[in-house]
Structure formats: C-alpha cells, structure tokens
From TrEMBL:
This is Ca2+:H+ antiporter. It comes from Pedococcus cremeus. InterPro entries: Alkaline_pH_Ca-Antiporter (IPR052946), NaCa_Exmemb (IPR004837). One of its GO terms (molecular function) is potassium:proton antiporter activity. Residues 35-189, 222-364 form the Sodium/calcium exchanger membrane region domain. It is a multi-pass membrane protein. It holds the Pfam family Na_Ca_ex. Its main location: membrane. The chain crosses the membrane at residues 36-55, 67-90, 102-123, 135-157, 163-184, 219-237, 257-275, 287-312, 318-340, 347-365.
Amino acid sequence: MAAARTTNPMLTWTTFAPLAALVALALTWGRDLNTVLVVVVALLLAGSVLASVHHAEVVAHRVGEPFGSLVLAVAVTVIEVALILTLMISGGKDSASLARDTVFAAVMITCNGIVGLSLFVGARRYGLVSFNAEGAGAALATVTMLAALTMVVPTFTTSAPGPVFSGAQLVFAAVASLTLYAMFVSTQTVRHRDFFLPVSDEGELLEDDHAKPPTNREAWTSLGLLLVSLVAVVGLAKVESPAIESGVAAAGLPPSFVGVVIALLVLLPETLAAVRAAGRNRLQISLNLGLGSAMASIGLTIPAITIATIWIDQPLELGLGPTQMVLLALTVVTAVLTVVPGRATRLQGGVHLVLMAAFVFLAIAP
C-alpha cells in the first residue's frame, strides 16, 4: 500500500512569498525602478498581503479570539508607524501633515471600508448578521474619544498657531492615547473577553473554529512569517511610493492622496482577514479587526510620533479641516446606529461603503 503523502507546511507559497518579498525589498530599497521592476514589486506586494492573512488566521486560531485580531491589528500598526516616521524624516517640512492624513485615512478605511464591506458580505450571505453590541460599542467609544482628542481638538487650541498642539498638549494627548488603548486591551483580553467573541443570531457565544488548532511550533512559525510579511508589505509599499506619486501627479490628484493609497495597501491584510471572517458568519471578529485597527492606529501612532519629535525638528499638524471633521462626525453617528442593535443587514454595510466612497472621492477632489 502506498504511503500517504503529506505536505510540509514550510514548503508552501505562504512561506516563500514573504521571504521573496523581503529579498526584493533589500534589493530595491532606495533605488529607482523601471516599469518591469515596478510590476514585479507590485506582484510580490500582493503575495505578501495574501500570505499575511493566512499566517494571521493561523495565529488567531491558535490563541483564540480576541487575541488573534489583536495580534494583526498591533503588528500592522507598529509597522505603519515606522513607515510614517520614515516618510516624515525623508519628506522634511512638506510632510508636516503626513501623520494626520495617514491616521485619518486609516480611521476612515477601517471604520467604513473594513466594517462596511464585512457587514455587506456577511449580510448578503446570511441575510442578517449578529455581533456583540457591548464589545463593538466599547471599541467604537474608544475610537471616537481617541480621534476627537488627537485630530479634532488641535484645530481649536490656541496655545500654538495653526492646527497643532503645543509641546505640553502633545505629551498629554500621547499619554491619554496610550492609557485608553491599554485600558481597552485589558477589557478585551482579560476582564470582559466574552464581549468580543462571535455570537449567534440568538446571542449565544460561538466557538472560534471547529478545526483542530495548529501546534505551538506552527503558530510560532506563522507569527514569525506574519511579521516578515507585514515588513514586506509596508517596505514594498514604500518602494512603490515613487511610482504611486508619479501616477498621482500625472492624474492631477492632490499630493495628500498618496497617503490614502499607501494606507489602503497597508490595511489590505486586515481587510481580507475581516471579509473572510464575515464570510464564515463571524462578524464580531471583523469588527474586532476594523475598530481595533482604528484604535491601534491612533493609540500607538500619536505616542510614537510624540517621542520622535524629540529628534525630528519640524511642525506636526494634527488638526483636521472642516470637510474631514464632517466625515469623521458622519462616521461616528453612522457607526453608533449600526452597533447599538447588535444586528445588521446589507443596508448598514452599504451606508458605510458609501461613506467610504465619499471619503475617497473628496480626497481626490477636495
């Protein structure tokens, strides 16, 4: 009798794609790329995105929810912070609003794009999707507070000219952001973990998965490859940014739209993971990813940039403009009305997606 063939988990495309992307990153960093290399880098970037989703799901399956969602959200945000700082250093005074534009784009993409797409996909397949209103509401409240404190308040302060914080105000905002984020993580993972677990239509908690969880070795391997994938995603997005900037300029779009494009690339892993969870009727996981990523984008980015301003001698514009504040207010009101019932249909998903489309359109035509 022939022996059954087994597949070595280390000999799959999800292992080779991020490693190849990392090699390509090392070879192309800081160099001008021709058209062929731009296409090759774009393909490797897409492969790294898909691989990161796979490895995030392996880790999430091993540690269970909501820890799995937290792993991906924090990993992406930490590398996103590194990308912002890199661009700020290389961009000089012209990048004074880069952190604000990137963080605001991340909030709009996560709270409207990821959440809206997940709601629409889940409701289209199951008709009516359920989630834990307590957990989603707590996450939304934290995101709202962080966004208002760090991006709305600076527009109205008077200690420094322009939409900026004074030194003391920036330190306060950074400490408050870290405190809120730490309190939320404690609530999500320790004190009220059940608020962030998937629920059935009757409100009963669901098991994360029925498949056998991966071994510790497989989980640690996937965690390492997840970090490699995320480094490759952000790094290759930076490598591709000159081509993106050229394309944006050739199309006559505002320079700030480059930040939106890069934010979309960086958040692709979480978007794909959230949509796949919604397709399995695990909408709470999708909301954990979407709202958790928005929270991490603010709660970790602002403190990191505050520390970085010690060495980066340039103004830091955090305050939003009128149009951006209106979009943020609409996002908060819409999200509250979506979260409160604990159930949603395709309509709620469609509303968030239209709001996401409005954000992208106004970023193109401000």
